[in-house]
Amino acid sequence: MFSKCEMCIVQHMSTKVASVPLLTGLTTGAETPPAVEFSGNPACGLRLPSRVLTDGEPRPRCWFLGVHGGAGETSLAQLFAGVAAAGHHWPIDPQARSRVVLVARTNFAGMTATQAAMRDWSVNHRQHAAVLGLVLIADRPGGLPRQLLDLQHDLEGATPHLWRLPWVERWTLGEIPSPENTPRKEVEVLRLGVTAALKAARKEGQDG
């Protein structure tokens, strides 16, 4: 069963993302880059591949799923216990619905990739993945231009929760995320938000 929130998201996506621009050059940060699959509907552009979890594979509490190369899924996964980077794949658990938090950068490519991922989820992945929310990581210092603010506003209505992280220059220089180089306030808001979303998802699963 799907929650009322998920049904609202699907309805929102049908109006706000009626046509997603064709994305080119979609890459992955996985050690072995997977082939990027074309969706059945060319209007949807490229979509992220999926991966079935093996029997002995650990099941994290949730997955950070970067919807494009360089989104920051690995950096975020290094900050929290009990979570994992999805390697730019939709994780398919044959035993239970996976909990997923999407991750993207705040540039045009990142936010339109998020639109495409949400459309793909609503059509192909709702049965085996619950999207808890979206983390937008600043692509540059400073604010966003009006066009990108409009895109961000659309994404706020298309995902259950939206969390923002600022530009972290030390991450871009190759430093491993740690308490010393992490925006503590924003990361704590993210931690509390994801924890609450996980509790709500478990409760909905029990009630359903």
Strands, total number: 9
- List unreliable stretches of 5+ residues: 7-45
Counting helices, strands and paired strands, the structural category is alpha/beta
Task: Give the total of domains.
Answer: 1
Shape: globular
**Using only CA atoms, what is the Rg?**
16 Å
Residues in helix, %? 25-40%
Contiguous helical run count: 6
Terminal Cα separation, in Å? Answer: 7 Å
**Main sheet?**
5 strands, parallel
Mean of residue pLDDT values: 80
Summarize the structure.
The protein has six helices and nine strands. The chain is of the alpha/beta class and 208 residues long.
What this model shows, in words?
This protein is α/β, with parallel strands linked by helices and 208 residues long. 37% of the residues lie in helices and 19% in strands. The strands form three sheets. It has a five-stranded parallel beta sheet with strand order 5-4-7-8-9, with helices on both faces.
